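2024-03-11 09:14:02 DEBUG pipeline.ingest accepted 1 chain
2024-03-11 09:14:02 DEBUG pipeline.ingest length=368
2024-03-11 09:14:03 DEBUG pipeline.predict start
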Amino acid sequence: MGERLSKILVADDDGMVRSTVSKILEMFGHEVTTAMDGKEAVAQVDDSYDVVILDINMPEMDGFETIEKLNELGHDIPVLFLTGAGSMDYAVKAINLGAYDFLTKPIEDLDIFNVKIRRAIEKRMYVLQERRYKEALEDDVRLKNDELEKKNTLLTSYSQHLEDATVNLMSSLQNAMEEKDYYTVGHTIRVTEYAVMLGAAMSLGEEDMEVLRRAAQFHDIGKLVIDLSCIQKPGKLTPEEWELIRKHPSVGANIIKPLGFMEREQKIIRHHHERMDGRGYPDGLRGDELCPLTKILIVVDSYDAMTSRRNYRRNLSMEEAISELYSCAGSQFDPATVGVFAETIVDFTPTDSVFSEEYLENVYLKSN
């Protein structure tokens, strides 16, 4: 297949000029179409043209109006103006409007005419080449972005699966630990349900609810690596035994620390035995030094401890436990959190059988 002929549009209201210019262009090997005025030229032109030649003085739409319309079309086709003798001011105005060059008529020097047409064609080729390069570059960037997005999706999915697997493994280990002791079996699940219940009642956002749920789920994870056989013995604990138990929040936080996706949960786990008056452990934080989620976990963890049976004391009823929360509000517990919990727990319906005595006894017997 031969090389494509350059396509040139000639617009002039003078038929003799159109014919003469067309023949000269065809003689130089170009494909030529014509228009009788600017309006017809604008209607006819499209991206297939390489050069447009315009007369300035045309009826209805002169050359200046025509080039403005062509600029609006955005084809970036070089425009050359045909100007008569003594109309150089017109040529300057045309160039200021974006014309590539101008040609004088009548055409006397064919070599100069041919050079100007060739340069305009080269300009058009450069424009098309640059356009193709930009399109190719945009396609390449789009392709790279698509590939990157797919990889990010896969990484996000993998990261989520890894997080879920880690959480499930830790949860299984903690549940196995609790099931070894009749007095703690089901504690984590109950605390988690209470925390979610209270968080919803306090209108927490979705992200805070997820952080609270995980913190509640692993608040006692530190007990996995501490010898807590002492809590299974009858009678009260010694000061040394209490000191050992008091280590589990900081130990739990250290277990969680390597998991970057649980940074907030780590702090809540570390502080779930702090008090409003600063007499808690391990850091002695007080008041607003405790975040709202930590205040929630402190209340629900203490409530479940009070209403669950222990070998060293009897469990309290709901009414007794709520009364105890109120009596310690301001010193141990956040008063506002206690108030919402007391209002909510009355109508709370647990969704898990871990709240039943029969479940506790069956799980404990199976694990032993």
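2024-03-11 09:14:41 DEBUG pipeline.report DSSP finds 14 helices and five strands in the chain.
2024-03-11 09:14:41 DEBUG pipeline.predict end
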